[in-house]
Amino acid sequence: MTSPLRVVVADDQTLARTGFRMILMADGIDVVAEAADGAEAVEAVRRTRPDVVLMDIRMPELDGLEATRRILTGASDPPRVIILTTFDLDDLVYAALSAGASGFLLKDVTPEHLVSAVRLVRSGDALLAPAITRRLVERHARRSPETAALPRDLAPLTPRELEVLRLLAQGLSNTELAAHLHLAEATVKTHVARILAKLGLRDRVQAVVTAYETGLVTPGIVARST
């Protein structure tokens, strides 16, 4: 039997935490701790070892960005972190993705989307569709180089893997990549997995960020059908 999914909810608004907890627990997800600021979130993760953290980006004492860094840096088996943000795509979200967060949710997310997002990242996938990630990265790429925490050397990748990464960063799904490259979807998945492994990346979100930060892809380029 699969063990229950364990979540820490970090938000400085009590009503927000309560709402998230009720939604998750109604779907059988175990909320093992709540935190009102980043410092509490770091301690809660250390104490409870959750699978996923819902992390508000702006909190007192210690913000969600620094809390994410402390949770993920050097951890042997860190949880997945989902950043909670507002519609205007907070500048800190990009830095959080660079630091290792697995994606973000808008704070007006529907209950169904919240539950599916938490389950998705627990399974090892990235929360964001590549096209959404691209929009975020295009807005912030190269604005804050001091926040970049990803590998910049793409030398380990083969020419085919570089091509896959370039297209992935332009917003193509695995199905679209397969059609574009005339490959089986299973082969595309293998290429993506190898790219992540070679570059030491957690998921597709970090792969997209890396593609932009290394200059492999520049804002405005759109993949063309072949």
TrEMBL record:
Keywords from the UniProt entry: DNA-binding, Phosphoprotein, Transcription, Transcription regulation
Protein name from the UniProt record: DNA-binding response regulator
Entry-linked Pfam families: GerE, Response_reg
Any one biological process term the GO annotation gives: phosphorelay signal transduction system
Residues in Response regulatory domain copies: 6-122
Gene Ontology molecular-function annotations: DNA binding
HTH luxR-type domain segment(s): 150-215
Source superkingdom: Bacteria
